[in-house]
Amino acid sequence: MKRSFFRKWLVIILVVIGIISLLKWGLGLVRDEEEGHITAKNTILQLDLVGVIYNGKKFIKNLKKYEDDAHVKAVVININSPGGAVGPSQEVFTEIKRFREQSKKPVICVSTGIMASGAYYSAVACDKIIVAPGALVGSIGVIMEFANLEKLYDWAKVSRYTITSGKYKDSGAEYRTMRDDERALFQNMIDEVYNQFKTTVMESRKLKEDVMANYADGRVFTGAKAVELGFADAVGTFEDAVTLAAETAGLGTDFELYEIPKKKRSIFDFGDGSDDDPVNSLFNSKVSSEKTMMKELLKVTLRSELLNQPLFLMPGFWGEQ
Known about the structure:
Layout: H1 2-34, E1 43-50, H2 57-65, E2 72-80, E3 83-85, H3 86-103, E4 107-111, E5 114-116, H4 118-123, E6 128-131, E7 136-138, H5 150-155, H6 180-205, H7 209-215, E8 220-222, H8 223-229, E9 234-235, H9 238-248, E10 256-259, H10 290-302, E11 311-313
């Protein structure tokens, strides 16, 4: 009797979930058609690049979405980011540059907070860079972090080992000290990526080699200093960037600023764990269980998601902003 009762309730729950899923899917189609539709003839599109650039797909998707929209006459990218992983930062740079070249629409970057490392790498693809006088700009360099937990494992009486196909396969492992040849291998990798960074900035900003040699050492500038040295174009605010975008596009004051709306949550989003963050930042803001919370805590404590990979990241600033 109890099994029969349980089965009936299980069937009812599954049917309800199915109905909610169908309604969510149907309303999602309607919502997708309604959201993000630009009607103003002369529109300046605002895109946000915020948080650690661990995955730039959301930003790139929005950039491509409006590339062929005739209403969009210019783009303003609002940046508040300490940088991120090398590949995604380079991908964002490439897509901004491609957008400019193919659409012929002006792209203005602006930061009144942080525009460092990978975020600055992305920004140099823009036509102009506007910064607040006190913004943190630059940090041109590459960092690669490792954790040596050998003593912690000894304390916990845990022995870890690997069987590898080559002597470098477990390089950077946290359970042992790094060898000198491994350190040299990683240093060569860092130097190669660093040269990519310097070349991109020098060519995009049309800077002289001596300027790059003197200042592309990981240091951070104020916005005012960045303008003085040629790493940015002008001191200003977000509104100044919008005005410059309008002038560059020949719009004068006849335009509307359009910010992509955030996805609206509803009861039909129950169980949907997706996060609508602009650059798919490193950590999700919600945890669903104690186990997940513990994993997130370890990530925060050890920065495990950022270990063993070259980063365009300003030290001291990471995670969600």
